[in-house]
Specification:
Layout: E1 3-14, E2 19-31, E3 36-40, H1 47-54, E4 62-67, E5 70-71, E6 81-84, H2 96-106, H3 111-124, H4 140-152, E7 158-162, H5 170-185, E8 189-194, H6 197-201, E9 206-211, E10 214-219, H7 221-228, E11 231-237, H8 241-248, E12 253-257, E13 260-265, H9 269-280, E14 284-291, H10 295-312
Parallel strand pairs: 3-8, 3-9, 6-7, 7-8
Antiparallel strand pairs: 1-2, 1-4, 4-5, 9-10, 11-13, 11-14, 12-13
Bound molecules: adenosine-5'-diphosphate and magnesium ion.
Amino acid sequence: MVVRLDNIRKAFASGFLMKRKAVLRGVSLGIHAGDAYALLGANGAGKSTTLRILLGLTRADAGEGRLFGRPLDDRVVHARLGYLPENPSFHEQLTAREFLSYCGKLVGLRSAALSRRVDELLERVRLEDARNIRLRKMSKGMLQRLGLAQVLLADPELLVLDEPMSGLDPPGRKLVRDLIVEQRDAGKTVLFSTHILSDAEVVCTRAGILRGGLVVRELSLEELGRLQSESVEVEVSGLPDALVRQLQTRARSVIHAAGSVLFTVAPGREVRDLLQSTLAAGGNVESIVPRRVSLEEVYLDTTRREVEAHDTRPLAPVGSGGAR
Ligand SMILES: Nc1ncnc2c1ncn2[C@@H]1O[C@H](COP(=O)(O)OP(=O)(O)O)[C@@H](O)[C@H]1O
Ligand SMILES: [Mg+2]
């Protein structure tokens, strides 16, 4: 396992009375080599805090974590990872090329190899025409892409990206998505946070939903895949009412429209049975549409269930030391 967090707790003191507010109340997650793991959660859910604790930039109040099997404060493993903070800030006077060359030297690249790598990365993040522009003149999107190039410099085994798609236009988002998929396919491990579900959906192999200071749900690739074809909508017409009533009992839902009936059924056998019955009765199949359940719906569903659970039991007291 590349990353493991066990029961991580963190509270911050804030406000006039410096009251401690629990942000993480026992976060646990595990990330295997080759995973692209999306840490999902609303703004303020604690995503950045979780990543910062993992990277040893913030200390947890309680709990344990491992990075490449070693304790989180073990600096040796940091050579194997690249980190893009949420709001990266750079040396404004440098040009894109100077900045990457400077970072490259820090990770041990020299002369021709350094020069080659820098040009290759500028091209990869589509900044080749901006190589001599000073960073203070760059847009948020350009800086974000430069930050990604910097993360890739030393070809890290683990990429930790905090909201890598935020502030980007659609082509920029696509570039980040492609980069994540590319790294994943090259056997690298990617951990990224986002509050934009649609960005996570297309690239992640696993997702964890952070809410109320906990990872309330984790989804594997199989679960993500199953969600994508959880039911099929079949629209048929020309069926006798008696048959519709009979088929209705086996469908998940039925909508009667003018002249046709829309059945929602499970994929596979139920679809086949419905089609056979329809055709045997001389009816027409108007359309067959796999009904994808998006991550967004899962997220909302999980959130709803959480709220319902909280409605029926009193909220646990939040004390210092992160009692739950
Ligand atoms: N250094 C800090 N001091 C006080 N409060 C903090 C600090 N860092 C984060 N917080 C608070 O912790 C909560 C979670 O923040 P964060 O981890 O940045 O969430 P996310 O990245 O999911 O938006 C927020 O309420 C934030 O205000
Ligand atoms: Mg954040």
